[in-house]
Amino acid sequence: MTTVHNAQRGPREARERPGCRSPAGSRPRRVLSLPASAGQNGCMVRRIESYAVERWVRPVGDGRVLRDAVTGEPVAELGQPGADPEAMLRHAREVGGPSLRELGFHERAAILKSLALHLNDRRDELYDLSLQSGATRRDAVFDVDGGIGVLFSYSSRGRRELPAGNVVLDGPTEPLGKGGTFVGRHVYVPRRGVAVQINAFNFPVWGLLEKLAPAFLAGLPTIVKPATPTAWIAEAAVRQLLDAGLPPGALQLWVGSPDGLLEALDGQDQVAFTGSAATARHLRSHPALVARGVRVTTETDSLNASILGPDAVPGTPELDLFVKQVVVEMTVKAGQKCTAIRRAFVPRPRMRDVTDAIAERLGRVVVGNPRDPDVTMGALVSVEHRDDVRRGVAALAAAAAPVIGDPGRVETRGADPERGAFVAPLLLRADEPERPEPHRIEAFGPVATLMPYDSVDHVVRLAALGEGSLVASIVSHDPGFVRDIVLGLAPYHGRLLVLDRADAAEQTGHGSPLPTLVHGGPGRAGGSEELGGIRSVLHHMQRTAVQGSPDALVAATGAWTGGAATADDGVHPFRKTFLELGVGDRIVGGPRTISDADIAHFAAFTGDRFYAHTDDEAAAANPFFGRRVAHGYLVLAFAAGLFVDPAPGPVLANYGLDNLRFLAPTYPGDAITVALTAKELTPRPNQDYGEVRWDAVVTNQDGVVVATYDVLTLVARERA
Ligand code: NAP
Asked: I want to staple 206 with a disulfide (CB 3.0 to 4.6 A). Which of 125, 147, 394, 431 is the partner?
């Protein structure tokens, strides 16, 4: 049995040396369990380590110093990875994969919950470290709590929506031959490789956890490669995860260029990348990945749009919602969000109103040291990145002029604007919205461009010039406009938010990917999908079509299917406990004749007097029946009466029906028979009962199938 163990612990803390400056406005504080070496100015600078083959490995060679985005003080140093990539991959494949697959979905889901709880108790440590990347507390909550939320969500979905074990059935059995002896079914199974996850700098915690959770649940070990500018935060999060306890080999950390890792991947491995479109292009054409058919998914940059509807005139809630949302998206994480609004489309007559309203709100933004509680927007991640943003704005200037903010000037609170990576929020305006620049250039900071549009077709065409985006929002209370825009934009977007007065209080925001909904977008946005509930787990598995006889499929999948052998040992299956039941256990009940009196009684008793059951003349005119028929629900109720064993016993409850179809009418005088077969047995984690899915087939006296459905019951594991 796999043991979930705690990672070997490194030195617990590094303290700043006397004489070193603390970040402005902060008191010296304990930092996470990180080793330190003397930096250029004699201060203790943490050397970011990799975690390889169950131990922390110091980097080698000269380091690159990472600086506090606000103060410019060194916070960490990055060297060449001291770990051996081939040993890490071997460890993941030979130890991590088997130790994960020894568990099932439910056990792995339970571990995700324990990770979430562990991180939840230590959030403050990650918030503190995030300050050094220029993030405000609100930004850090977005990153850290958002990531923990993903763990909770996948834990819960994994236990509720995935079966026991490691095989997921995909769709029904497909008949492949006329005689019923040859059928096919799709199954998902864990791949035998490793997930290499290359993350962007802007969400060092969320980015790590939103990729780790579905891969882990799928049974695939992870090697995570964080982005350099915020690698110390990701390293701290990995230390917390390892402290919480993970199966051996399930998670390793590679800090540095991933080239050595990529060279050694093979067709069971996959690379999940988040970052710029330029790096994604490099990865998609990486010779080793192409040559060995390594799965590559990419989540890249995106020129997301928000569209104000023509109905949103001054005084409506929608105009205020639009303005507020644009400002929030410009300023949260100082605009360093892949989902931020870059292009704001406004009906031409509304341009002045919207510009004034945004100016008024942006005027209230306080840029500066995020350690100051009055500051509402922090710094960009580094001065190098600030210079990139300024270059982006300069390139946008060919089509768009600043209307609010100055790219070269910023007033800061509690921080030196020269030492920190600050820029002021910058609203641009492009009066010729067809110009290419606003639709191509991503200035990855607090920058958005306002553009006028003239009609639905016009704005759909303009939004599509982004060539595929992660998200767009439509702010309108006009159903006709909403319908036209949603259908026009959907092919170009992974997610669409419709915002109006009805959902304003509850909506989760333009820029927030949710674990239950897909995140990703076509074209420029990378062409992949992440999250989206269990979909994302399945992306990490292999879907295989298995063909054979029904019995061969039962043997391979553990699920009973029509045409396969059944068992009747004389004991009613309802008298068997969950542990005693086997797939294929069957009870056949009937026949029972359905009389006119039964139908009349059912109609009177339930109040369902639909003409097809009660009126001969009207029923005769019905194109499907030709004469009076029994209620479908009567057939179901009578079938239950035929298969149920009434005495108290292991069957605890019926909790629903799936896939119900009435396939042929049942006429007065017909005699029905039901065959009920145990089809899938799913233990419920930590419960003393399991779920049993029964296949139910109701036939008439001529052997014609009149109804098929699945009955779902909860059955006690053992006899009381
Ligand atoms: P980036 O420069 O493309 O880097 C992303 C990751 O790729 C980093 O870990 C980076 O490592 C690594 N990398 C760089 N060159 C590589 C190479 N030749 N081979 C393999 N890996 C390589 O992007 P970023 O600056 O970190 O992030 C900002 C961008 O990410 C923005 O454009 C933003 O829109 C996008 N983004 C997209 C999403 C999404 O979900 N679609 C989410 C967040 C961000 P180093 O840091 O060590 O160079």
From this structure: 147
